[in-house]
Amino acid sequence: MATFDAVVIGGGLAGLTCAVALVSNDLKVAVVEREKILGGRARSWTDCVTGDPISIGPHILSSEYRNMLKLLRILGTENKIVWERDTFITMVTGRQEVVMKMAPLPAPFHFVPSLLADPTLANRDWLSNSAITLYAMSISENELLALDSMPALKLLERFRVSPAYIRRFWAFISMAVMNVPLELCSAASILRFYRRLNGKNGYRVGFPDGGLGDLFVPAAERFLTANGATILREVEVTEFIAGERVSGVALADGPHLGARFSIAAVPPRALEKMLPPGLSSIESLRNLACFQPSPYISVYLWFDRKLSDLRFWSRLYEAGDWNVDFYDLSNICSGWKRRPSVIASNIIYSSRLGKVSDREVVARTVLELSEFLPEAAKSTVRHAVVNRIPMAIPAPLPGWEHLRPRNIMPFRGLVLAGDWMQTGLPASMESACMAGWRAAECVLAEYGRPQHLAERHQELNWSAALLGGGVRVLRKMGTRHRTRTSFSRSAMACK
Ligand SMILES: Cc1cc2nc3c(=O)[nH]c(=O)nc-3n(C[C@H](O)[C@H](O)[C@H](O)COP(=O)(O)OP(=O)(O)OC[C@H]3O[C@@H](n4cnc5c(N)ncnc54)[C@H](O)[C@@H]3O)c2cc1C
Which ligand 1 atom is the nearest neighbour of the CA of 236? Predict the structure, then answer.
């Protein structure tokens, strides 16, 4: 039986981040990946018809992805990201564009000028959102977690956010970022994201310049093999070998790999299948079946002409819409500027559509695209790819923040990683990388070599923290009983 210091199960971002950290500290590591291609839910490949790189689905990064950017820095691929200049997001409804820019104002006021200029909102609508904004800046982690069982829509109604603002803003971020409809989203999860969105300014969004996996997979493979790691592809781990501690893994084709530490960098349902009976009753491993997926359908369309000069836009989400976010890769990838449009889009929480054929998906995507870009209806789609992804992320349904494991070593020898860990972030590439660094910290500490690897996130900058602190003091002083603001009434309603 081959033996290692650590076996990393799963070659996605979490697993590769952890493996990179461990080999950098001279540990003997094996990475075992079930699929042919590494990268997991952030993988990409070459399209066999066009020869273009395509990803499992289009992804966005943020300049706040400190843990992912740290990985890319080590791998030397940080320059493969195309950053947006001044636009944060372009939201479209019909042919109308609503551009959100980050004004040079202290947080949480940096989006106010864009909101004021938004023709789809009356002043009373965005003012109706002030109370929840102040509340988000002022709440503690415990108060936030107390909202986990509440659906987000209920919280917004309690804060008397206007229906127009809910439709225009919250329904959109729920679908686009949290990946579930607002009525199904945990109030704690969305409020936590909102706190970060508004609590800091100066960040930018970016896109991979080419295939998403090309950002980290080839460089990680080179880095790992150069540092003595073994990478097994198309090999499935079936079970942990567990006695007093987990001492390795069993592989589908028979042999065992022995290891002092087994790092499970796989989604919760995959982890559940690998647990021998003795481990499945452990507190943080007991509820793995409760994680529900948010499935996606991602679409790639090669058009015969240029349709736009935008890189990225989103539809203002309306119930009944299929697509949420669109990307014109001809305006993103280096050297593609003169090419006809290659448009990628995501149909998020796609289980809401029931059974739909690829043909229907393509036709509906062209239709929705042409509502914003009428030229799309007149053009020819030369080639189309439809990717169906059973789980893009675990869905942040009410209760999900409590399901996420805090204890990353639930049993001796077994360490957990993955986007679904308790990182304080939405399940995302950044959460996966943060969990990967943390898993490595845990293993290295057991080897008596403690290290600080995961980058902590500062949630609020000075201005938002100051404002939040002031609101917190007022709340503590009980001013809510004396004032008649909707904020104080709503905050009380949430107790
Ligand atoms: C279409 C789409 C769009 C997205 N958009 C964004 C976005 O814009 N921004 C963002 O930040 N995030 C986005 N995400 C989410 C992001 O991709 C994931 O959060 C992240 O990639 C998860 O990484 P991970 O390492 O935790 O898990 P995974 O990538 O799932 O890695 C787990 C790996 O384990 C392997 N595995 C599972 N079981 C076994 C086994 N028994 N034996 C061996 N190997 C096994 C799997 O094959 C997989 O490679 C999106 C995801 C999708 C699919």
Answer: 42
